[in-house]
Amino acid sequence: MRIAVYAGTFDPITLGHLSVVERGARLFDRLLVVVAVNPRKQPLFSVEERIQLIEASVLGFPNVSATSTMSFVVDLARSQGARYLIRGVRGATDTDAEIALAHLNHELAPEIETVFVPAQPELSEVSSSRLKELALEGADLTRYCAPEVSAMLRQRLSPQPAEEVGHG
């Protein structure tokens, strides 16, 4: 069985991520989408919320599941019997960083191969950060994320009413 791991922060998952999932689901017998916890990042959504959004977004792919890890992704891959890491790339800037990460992962786990999947051209500018900016601006998110993600983003990022101050 050919098992692959697709790891990222996924804060939140975008249609760009889902295009990589779709291609990975076709290439491999089993694909595990992993929320990699990065202590240097301040995510908008909790790990559990991100997993929930991923699971809701991949319902159409029976060979795809989601989990999280706080350790090295290659360690999780080994524990799951995965021999492949999938990395999505949007452009030249991503490619340089992803190649450096692939070299590091190869040093840690030479038996695990990294497979690069380029983003579809129409989704190459979509990032989780940009998605959050668009949500704050009140933009239509249909082109960038699943409806469940859009709803949760709007709920999380909607302006909170100011508390009224009593005058006495």
Summarize the structure.
The protein is 40% helix and 18% strand. By secondary structure, the chain is α/β, with parallel strands linked by helices.
Task: Describe this entry's structure for a reader.
With 168 residues, the protein is α/β, with parallel strands linked by helices. The chain has one domain (3-157): HUPs (Rossmann fold, 3-Layer(aba) Sandwich). Helix content is 40%, strand content 18%. The chain has a 5-stranded parallel sheet, with helices on both faces. Strand 4, helix 4 and strand 5 (113-118) form a beta-alpha-beta unit. It starts with a strand and ends in an 11-residue tail after the last helix.
Number of strands: 5
The CATH topology is Rossmann fold
Overall average residue pLDDT: 90
CATH 4th-level superfamily: HUPs
Please report the first level of CATH classification, the CATH class.
Answer: Alpha Beta
Strand order of the largest sheet: 3-2-1-4-5
Secondary-structure element pattern, one letter each: EHEHEHEHEHH
* Radius of gyration, CA atoms, in whole angstroms: 17 Å
